[in-house]
Amino acid sequence: MISSRILSLCFFLLLFVSACSKTMVVLVPDPDGAVGKVTVTPKIGSSHLLEKPMESINTYPVSILSRGSDIITMESLPESLKETLRNEPEYLSQFIFYFQSGSVELNEESLGKVSLAVQKIEAKKSCDVVSIGHSDSVGDEEYNVRLSSQRAEVVKSMLVAAGVAAECIETISYGESDPLVKSGDNVDESVNRRVELEIR
């Protein structure tokens, strides 16, 4: 999935008669709660590691940086940062389902992902779901396009059986043309036998 977003806001403060630049860095978690890390290194002063949700630091003046970071709330973000968040593209959720060789049967681990995908669709209230079928390079191109189409339809059917509206799910087939792991012809590569489910 996607690493945490670092939002940087630049604005200006008047200090006596001269202008000085001030930058705030905020570590904003992804919509699924994942949080990355970022090291802020100012021109003057020591570096500081941000690794907690909504941890922020001002890089000017040095006296502000030296006292470390603060945890802020979404509500207390400066209006320019709020606007940046509002204009972000919609977060894409993705699940990958893997299949047995030459088959439309999901492997055991992937069976457990169906309910998680349904929960995510319901949480996002999404009616924009794409089931994208793929295959390894065993067999000819026409066979693999057909097989990956069947795999995409299998995942769609499982979602529909779990309560997702059929009209909200589009299916696409790429056959062997878009592998996760590149290989020669007629190679039985398990990670290429998959369906990528995108929830928008």
The SSE order reads EEEEEHEHEHHEHEE
Taken together, the total number of domains comes to 2
Q: What is the overall silhouette?
A: elongated
User: What topology, given as strand order, has the largest sheet?
Assistant: 1-2-5-6
Uncertain spans: 1-20
Helical residue percent band? 25-40%
* Known CATH architecture of the largest domain: 2-Layer Sandwich
* Superfamily (CATH H level) name of the largest domain: OmpA-like domain
Class by SSE composition = alpha+beta
Overall pLDDT confidence: 83
Question: How many β-strand stretches?
Answer: 10
Beta-strand portion reads 25-35%
CATH topology of the largest domain, anyone?
A: 60s Ribosomal Protein L30, Chain: A
Top CATH class of the largest domain: Alpha Beta
Number of helices: 5
Main sheet attributes: strand count, strand direction, barrel closure: 4 strands, antiparallel
C-alpha Rg (nearest Å):
23 Å
Distance from N terminus to C terminus (CA atoms, Å) equals: 14 Å
Task: Give a topology summary.
Elements (H helix, E strand, L loop, with lengths): L4 E11 L2 E11 L9 E3 L7 E3 L4 E4 L3 H5 L3 E2 L7 H8 L6 E6 L9 H4 L1 H12 L4 E5 L7 H21 L7 E5 L20 E6 L1
Parallel strand pairs: 8-9
Antiparallel strand pairs: 1-2, 2-5, 3-4, 5-6, 7-10, 8-10
